[in-house]
């Protein structure tokens, strides 16, 4: 029998088998492959089988059955191959996603990766996705981020961009984070605001997905009694997927995904893939949240440690100052009584001695030096008293005026003018009136002794951030910062008692108050003393 098909020939030429396409030329010489891939589906082969059945050839009735079974098995293998290929691609994608999530710590970085994975063609291929996160303070699910197109034109542009770039998931997520995150938040701002749902609304489909800990595929949303009509109207789609993000002990939020552009059906396989994807995303989000919390706690601890160190330094300094105060107070009281006796007797003798007496000069020297020692002892005792302030609310403008009035005579003696610029409506300050008055008097006294005749002193009070500030400016020559540090250090080795030591007591007083005592140089070479005092007891 002459056969129409070439199945019985080891080698054929193109004229004998027109069904071999371009690129399959190898089949002309490979008999086995040609029979399996071409002949079994060839119409000429079917005609040969029919003729053999009609002629009653052996096995002619069995061959169609064998060929049909072979083709069925081949179709199954092809289907299985496609399934395995799809699963392999999905596993590779999930592996890539896992690596990206493992190396991401920022919340926005993780969210960009997750939503890019849902909507990217190489990922789950959904058209649009929204993320809602639990807000514990407001006790609600709050719309946080959206991604995807709002119309077909935008979708087409995005798909073309993805096809041209062919970037990895990590690169796509990084590009989204750097260039599109803010714009996507703004683009879906209206929808995200409307998607917020109270957590105590247990019947809402979002809360049901969280409580049941499984995804919900919503179909026929506009007529589904379980879907609020407002939600269906906001999303504008008939079918969408609600995917909960849950770790072992915490409800992170939900992802709402849909195919608003292509209207492609969401299959159970899509649900299963997204469910596998949801857990590492939820875990990564919880880790990012914990990381942010740890960073905040670390910053708080660092700040607290710095403040603690400052307080320790203050305590050590105050303990040293207190020790100095006790010692100097004891010495001062021991010296004061005999000094008063000496000075008193010298003054009495001076009153009763003649002007021409040769001993009068000696007595005047004794009285003068005794007075100097009494002033030094007064400063020492004032320093000791400064370690124990008694605070109350006082009018600083009135305090400054009283101090200036008390020094008016001495300023006039040196032809020094003092101008006061009181701030109107200045609140009272919580201070020790006696000690602050001593500080201002000491600064003014130091200026009077330092300035040349005819100079000027300016005093200004201001309110800064709830603090009452007194600024005392003079035109004394510029003093180096090292020298100023010596002047404001109690009883420093280079400091003479009675010569500017009052400034060191001012420093001690303000340290005890827990307030700054600053001295800066002015542009014209003078000095400015800045005294800052709290306007409220709580601030002190």
Report on this structure.
It is a single chain. With 540 residues, the chain is α+β, with helices and mostly antiparallel strands. The chain has four domains: 25-87, no CATH class; 104-266, GAF domain (Beta-Lactamase), CATH 3.30.450.40; 317-386; 392-534, Heat Shock Protein 90. The chain contains 16 helices and 13 strands. The chain has helices spanning 31-37, 43-54, 63-102, 107-119, 152-165, 169-187, 189-194, 205-212, 229-235, 268-351, 360-386, 396-406, 408-413, 433-450, 481-487, 501-513; strands at residues 128-135, 140-147, 197-198, 216-218, 240-246, 251-258, 392-394, 417-421, 429-431, 456-464, 467-474, 517-521, 527-534. Strands 3-2-1-6-5-4 form a six-stranded antiparallel beta sheet, with helices on both faces. It has a five-stranded mixed beta sheet with strand order 8-10-11-13-12. Strands 7-9 form a two-stranded antiparallel sheet. A hairpin with a 4-residue loop joins strand 5 and strand 6. Helix 11 runs parallel beside helix 16 (501-513) and helix 12 (396-406) packs across helix 14. The longest helix has 84 residues, at 268-351. The chain is rod-shaped. Mean pLDDT is 80; it is low at 486-500.
Quick structural gist:
By secondary structure, the protein is of the alpha+beta class. It has helices spanning 31-37, 43-54, 63-102, 107-119, 152-165, 169-187, 189-194, 205-212, 229-235, 268-351, 360-386, 396-406, 408-413, 433-450, 481-487, 501-513, and strands at residues 128-135, 140-147, 197-198, 216-218, 240-246, 251-258, 392-394, 417-421, 429-431, 456-464, 467-474, 517-521, 527-534.
